[in-house]
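User: Hi! I have a protein structure encoded as tokens and I'd like to know what sequence might fold into it. I'm fairly new to this, so please keep things simple.
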């Protein structure tokens, strides 16, 4: 059975990330490898991966996306505000689908949260705000910090949104 996984803000190649922002890692290398291994633990030829932005800060990290492209049935990336300037072109050459904002499964998928006035007929799965969350049940943040540095299943997100709707009725 196919599964869909989502994650955001991997920040591969972000110099000093383990010193400045993600101090639970002893080094930038540990940070990069932990997230990469967690993504690879979800791979499967029937599985789909969505990364909602801020994937690779440096070209020497692009190989990770190429590895995902050969390990998943489909890889989709919503570009973030910190992508390397040649990242989108690289992704397209490797068969990775590149997006801005996408409406899929009744959700808006984006890097940054969508403004509430624009969020009609759907909920927003996003990244960008790291361990912060939008205090609104119509949003879910899949930034690494918010989901334990492991991709989250779309089915789990659907259940979370369903539970929130049930509680708010």
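Assistant: Happy to help. Inverse folding works backwards from shape to sequence: for each of the 169 positions I chose a residue that suits the local structure. Here it is:
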């Amino acid at each position: 059975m196919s599964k869909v996984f989502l994650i955001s803000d991997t920040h591969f190649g972000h110099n000093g990330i383990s010193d400045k922002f993600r101090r639970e890692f002893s080094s930038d290398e540990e940070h990069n490898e932990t997230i990469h291994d967690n993504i690879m633990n979800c791979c499967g030829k029937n599985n789909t991966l969505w990364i909602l932005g801020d994937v690779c800060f440096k070209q020497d990290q692009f190989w990770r996306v190429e590895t995902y492209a050969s390990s998943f049935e489909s890889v989709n990336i919503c570009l973030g505000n910190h992508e390397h300037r040649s990242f989108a072109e690289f992704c397209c050459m490797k068969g990775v689908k590149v997006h801005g904002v996408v409406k899929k499964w009744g959700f808006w998928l984006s890097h940054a949260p969508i403004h509430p006035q624009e969020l009609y007929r759907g909920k927003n799965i996003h990244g960008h705000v790291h361990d912060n969350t939008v205090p609104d049940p119509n949003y879910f943040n899949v930034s690494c910090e918010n989901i334990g540095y492991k991709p989250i299943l779309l089915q789990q997100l659907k259940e979370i949104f369903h539970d929130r709707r049930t509680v708010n009725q």
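A useful reference point when you look it over: The CA atoms of residues 133 and 141 lie 6 Å apart. Feel free to ask if any position seems puzzling.
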